[in-house]
Write a structure and sequence with these properties.
Layout: E1 3-6, E2 11-15, E3 25-30, H1 39-48, H2 50-63, E4 71-75, E5 83-88, H3 99-116, E6 121-124, H4 136-153, E7 159-164, H5 167-184
Bound molecules: ligand AR6.
Length: 185
């Protein structure tokens, strides 16, 4: 992790590689097959090891993958986190009017699954903003609003960490979170 930025006690911003993060759970931007892929998904499967794919295959056999906006949980294997929560963000398309709601669902359902598994600290990558091409500023607004609303009505999660891999996302989050902090002060 290169930088650390404490916005308030329950929302934190970091820049770097989510696979190295010490949190109860890290979230994966997966796809509906749960069989791995590129981007953060590839990095998580590489760092966590074969056990993650084995658990994903068991989930697939049980429920046939993971729908867009839903979430499932596995071990984090060799990574410092305890769990990986795999969620699937929407692929961006201008005509897809449901994309905003689906992205919000991905964050909310990940948080709900975290609570079910007694997770207190959870780290999110910037879901859908890579291979799925969701506009970064719009995705950040949805992510922050959804997490903030969730935290205001759920006290069980102690900390949510937004982990930005690229500088552009980091700057967007920094600005939005500073504004949020300013509004609340
Ligand atoms: N740590 C944190 N963030 C990362 C890392 C990392 N190690 N690597 C990339 N990112 P993407 P998506 C950021 O493409 O858009 C996969 O093939 C990256 O900079 O990983 O939801 C899946 O299997 C970007 O901001 O996910 C799906 O098929 C963010 O993670 C598809 O990609 C998300 O980029 C999902 O696409």
């Amino acid at each position: 992790m290169v930088e650390k930025f404490n916005m308030n006690t329950r929302i934190e911003l970091q820049k770097g590689d989510i696979t190295r993060l010490h949190a109860d759970a890290i979230v994966n931007a997966a796809n509906t097959s749960l069989l791995g892929g590129g981007g953060v998904d590839g990095a998580i499967h590489r760092a966590g090891g074969q056990i993650i794919l084995e658990e994903c295959i068991k989930i697939r056999n049980r429920q046939g993958g993971c729908a867009v906006g839903e979430a499932v949980i596995t071990t984090a294997g060799n990574m410092p986190a305890k769990f990986v929560i795999h969620t699937v963000g929407p692929v961006w398309s201008k005509s897809n009017t449901g994309a905003d709601a689906l992205l919000s669902n991905a964050y909310r359902n990940s948080l709900q699954l975290a609570i079910k598994n007694d997770v207190k600290t959870i780290a999110f990558p910037n879901i859908s903003t890579g291979i799925y091409h969701f506009p970064k500023d719009k995705a950040a607004e949805i992510a922050i609003r959804t997490v903030k609303d969730f935290l205001s009505s759920n006290t069980k999660i102690e900390k949510v960490i937004f982990v930005c891999f690229d500088e552009e996302n980091y700057r967007i989050y920094e600005k939005l979170l500073e504004e949020l902090l300013y509004l609340e002060s």
